[in-house]
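To: structure subgroup
Subject: Chain for Friday's discussion

All,

I'm putting the inputs and outputs inline so they're searchable in the archive.
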Amino acid sequence: MDHQNASETPANSVAGKYSRRAAYIGAAIVIAGGLAIGGTHFDFTHSDAGEVQQAQQAPQVTVERPTRKKLIEWDEYTGRFRAVDSVEVRARVSGYLQEVDFRDGQFVEQGALLFKIDPRPFQAELDAARADVKARESALANAQKEYARGKELVRRGTISKATQDNRLAALQEAQAGLEAAKAHVETARLNLEFSEVRAPVSGRISDNYVSRGNLINGGAQGGTLLTTIVSTNPIYFEFNMSEADHLKYLRLHQQGDRSVTGGDDTRVSLRLLDESGFVHDGKMSFIDNRIAPSTGTLRARATFDNADDSFAPGMFARIKVPGSAEYNALLIPDSAVQTDQTDKFVWVVDENDVVKRREVTLGPKDNEKRIVRTGLAPDDEVVVKGTQFVSADMTVEPQPTRTAQLEQAAH
């Protein structure tokens, strides 16, 4: 009956081979012990005993066929967040710091008042400049009248042409003086405006570096640093890719695949250090125009939404970018991969239950499995457990994984 059941099991099934082998080994054990029936002891040939010994010594290993899955290969990089806008708030005029009008670390809108420098000296300067304009206007009006009278006097011969030329020069000087006075008014007005230091961009502000009451310096040559502001939404994530990766993406682009890293709006995802999955979605927004000679890497940047303030400039994270077009891949458990110096290989059991070594070319991991680019066929039976007990050309007793058993039962 056992031989009949074994013959009914599909010849190419791992579970079928296991059933035939179990029946054979069971019979062999009984035969090897010497079965006595009716007081008669059965003797067997030396060849039968050798086959029994070989069957008993065959180690059990767990085998599994590669999983076929349609996927995209992803490349991972480590990088840092960087603010889109980062501003050092400095004084543009000198004076005593009178007010600090924000809370340390708060979010401020563009144009919000941050610091106030004592405005009285600047107001006085503005008033003086305006008074000077009025004096210049009066002087110009008088010069215009003198020049107009001089024209008639020259015609009558009362004054010389040289005197009239002097009056013209006085008129032009008065006009220039008025323009200078007006420019002085504008400068004084700006200085008074700069006494109120306002937020140049919207973002999160740091603390105040200078307390009220201190004398601060201003000017284009580097005023006193008062605080800093960084924008928070959206936010950049910068990372460096190797020259080899850059060339890989370039070749894929040249082949017509526009979904990989390098094109604008390429979709990417990111995870923080305390997260297990890549749950934050963004898009590529920039790739530098040269490779850094000192590191051999290329700077790249992605943009992410940060409405909930999950990301802060300077924070580390891992980014996942598409490294291939979508294709049908073969995957095996990563534990099945063996290493021989620089070579990667797996143990494969053939139709005669003999172990064979297969050199493989590997891709990245997909969850707990490893992508195999070359070296395996979809129907190969790969040793996934018990690899430490096998060697090339060894006869083994393959056992299917629990998943393979369930699939066999379903069929």
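Points worth raising on Friday:
Residues 1-47 have pLDDT under 50 and may be disordered.
The longest strand covers residues 74-83.

D.
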